[in-house]
Amino acid sequence: MSVLKDSVEINEGLVLVLPKNFAQDSDSSDLIQHLNDIKVVRNIISPPFPYTKGDADFWLNHVASLNDFWFIRDSKSLKIVGAVGIHPTTSLEEALEPFLKAEGLKEKERFVLGYWLADEYKGKGVMTKAVQSVLKECRKDHPKGVTILCHFFLSNV
Q1: Residue 49, Cα to own-chain centre: how many angstroms?
Q2: What tens digit of pLDDT does each residue of 51-87 get?
Q3: Each residue of 99-116: pLDDT tens digit?
Q4: Measuring CA to CA, which residue among 16, 9, 11 is closest to residue 84?
Q5: Backbone angles phi, psi at 81, to 5 degrees
Q6: Which has the least CB within 10 A, 4, 64, 95, 130?
Q7: Using DSSP, how many helices (H) and how many strands (E) does the chain show?
Q8: Helix (H, G, I), strand (E, B) or coil at 117
Q9: C-alpha–C-alpha distance, residues 129 and 117, integer Å
């Protein structure tokens, strides 16, 4: 059991934490480190590159009040090693609009799943467990169901 408020253990030594429930001074440098790693960035759709302190501070401020975005943290050091979130569809999904409308999927019921993970944690089932936990939380917030879209890269499968 983690000492962090409302955290969810997803793997031995790793927890999901809402940014609004916990933040620390090293968060900016954790993001800068990982989001300047080409092995991480090549599997994310649109992060700024190079990733700067300004980018990190902007993002940390943006996610500070969200209920649908979690950082994956090392449970000992509490350093950020990944993230996973669900957000309303954006312009990236416009290409799917005809299909989504044909299927009768209402815009307010459509979300996009996004995630990234530090390279040293890949291949250990971390993101599978993190996504399962996030989807479980989503079901609590949307008991009638929603459509979740997810972009992926073949290099990340």
Answers
A1: 18
A2: 999 999 999 998 888 888 999 999 999 999 999 988 7
A3: 556 666 555 567 888 899
A4: 16
A5: -125, 0
A6: 95
A7: 5, 6
A8: strand
A9: 12
